Amino acid sequence: MAGKGRGVGAFTFNIDALGIGRGNMPEARVGPSPLFPSTDFKPVPLKAGEDEDYMLALKQEMRGTMQRLPYNIKPQSWTHIQSVNCMQMERHKL
Fold first, then answer.
1. What's the pTM value of the predicted model, to 2 decimals?
2. Cα angle vertex 60, ends 57, 62, to 5°?
3. Which biological process, per GO, is one annotated for this protein (predicted)?
Protein backbone atom coordinates (compact mmCIF):
# COMPACT_ATOMS: atom_id res chain seq x y z
CA MET A 1 0.00 0.00 0.00
CA ALA A 2 0.95 3.64 -0.16
CA GLY A 3 2.69 5.57 2.59
CA LYS A 4 0.81 6.54 5.72
CA GLY A 5 -0.71 9.94 6.10
CA ARG A 6 -0.78 12.92 3.78
CA GLY A 7 1.93 14.53 1.76
CA VAL A 8 4.83 13.11 -0.15
CA GLY A 9 5.59 9.50 0.60
CA ALA A 10 9.02 8.75 2.01
CA PHE A 11 11.55 6.64 0.13
CA THR A 12 11.87 3.10 1.41
CA PHE A 13 15.63 3.22 0.88
CA ASN A 14 18.38 5.67 1.64
CA ILE A 15 19.37 7.84 -1.35
CA ASP A 16 22.84 8.37 0.11
CA ALA A 17 23.44 4.61 -0.11
CA LEU A 18 23.25 4.93 -3.91
CA GLY A 19 25.92 7.62 -3.90
CA ILE A 20 23.56 10.33 -5.09
CA GLY A 21 23.32 13.52 -3.12
CA ARG A 22 20.61 16.14 -3.43
CA GLY A 23 22.81 18.41 -5.55
CA ASN A 24 23.87 15.62 -7.92
CA MET A 25 20.49 15.08 -9.55
CA PRO A 26 20.20 16.16 -13.20
CA GLU A 27 18.20 19.25 -13.95
CA ALA A 28 14.75 19.03 -15.46
CA ARG A 29 14.53 19.27 -19.24
CA VAL A 30 12.75 22.35 -20.53
CA GLY A 31 12.85 21.74 -24.28
CA PRO A 32 12.40 18.90 -26.70
CA SER A 33 15.16 16.43 -27.39
CA PRO A 34 17.28 17.08 -30.49
CA LEU A 35 16.11 15.27 -33.62
CA PHE A 36 19.53 13.79 -34.32
CA PRO A 37 22.35 12.91 -31.94
CA SER A 38 25.38 15.14 -31.95
CA THR A 39 28.05 13.98 -34.37
CA ASP A 40 31.15 14.01 -32.24
CA PHE A 41 32.82 11.51 -34.52
CA LYS A 42 33.20 12.07 -38.25
CA PRO A 43 32.53 9.13 -40.59
CA VAL A 44 35.55 7.42 -42.05
CA PRO A 45 36.15 8.48 -45.67
CA LEU A 46 35.38 5.89 -48.32
CA LYS A 47 38.29 3.93 -49.68
CA ALA A 48 39.26 4.84 -53.22
CA GLY A 49 41.25 2.65 -55.52
CA GLU A 50 41.10 0.15 -58.33
CA ASP A 51 39.76 -2.66 -56.14
CA GLU A 52 36.86 -0.58 -54.83
CA ASP A 53 36.04 0.76 -58.31
CA TYR A 54 36.00 -2.80 -59.67
CA MET A 55 33.71 -4.01 -56.88
CA LEU A 56 31.34 -1.07 -57.44
CA ALA A 57 31.16 -1.74 -61.20
CA LEU A 58 30.62 -5.46 -60.55
CA LYS A 59 27.82 -4.72 -58.10
CA GLN A 60 26.08 -2.35 -60.52
CA GLU A 61 26.38 -4.85 -63.37
CA MET A 62 24.96 -7.63 -61.21
CA ARG A 63 22.05 -5.45 -60.09
CA GLY A 64 21.24 -4.57 -63.71
CA THR A 65 21.44 -8.22 -64.77
CA MET A 66 19.10 -9.27 -61.96
CA GLN A 67 16.57 -6.61 -62.97
CA ARG A 68 16.63 -7.75 -66.61
CA LEU A 69 15.94 -11.40 -65.77
CA PRO A 70 12.44 -12.65 -66.65
CA TYR A 71 11.94 -13.73 -63.03
CA ASN A 72 12.04 -10.14 -61.81
CA ILE A 73 8.49 -8.84 -61.29
CA LYS A 74 8.22 -5.31 -62.61
CA PRO A 75 5.83 -2.92 -60.85
CA GLN A 76 2.69 -2.12 -62.81
CA SER A 77 1.85 1.43 -63.72
CA TRP A 78 -0.49 3.34 -61.43
CA THR A 79 -3.01 3.92 -64.24
CA HIS A 80 -3.39 0.15 -64.69
CA ILE A 81 -4.06 -0.28 -60.97
CA GLN A 82 -6.66 2.52 -61.03
CA SER A 83 -8.48 1.06 -64.05
CA VAL A 84 -8.64 -2.42 -62.48
CA ASN A 85 -9.86 -0.92 -59.23
CA CYS A 86 -12.59 1.06 -61.03
CA MET A 87 -13.77 -2.08 -62.86
CA GLN A 88 -14.04 -3.96 -59.57
CA MET A 89 -15.98 -1.10 -57.99
CA GLU A 90 -18.45 -1.06 -60.92
CA ARG A 91 -18.99 -4.83 -60.64
CA HIS A 92 -19.58 -4.46 -56.93
CA LYS A 93 -22.28 -1.81 -57.50
CA LEU A 94 -24.23 -4.07 -59.87
1. 0.34
2. 105
3. transcription by RNA polymerase III
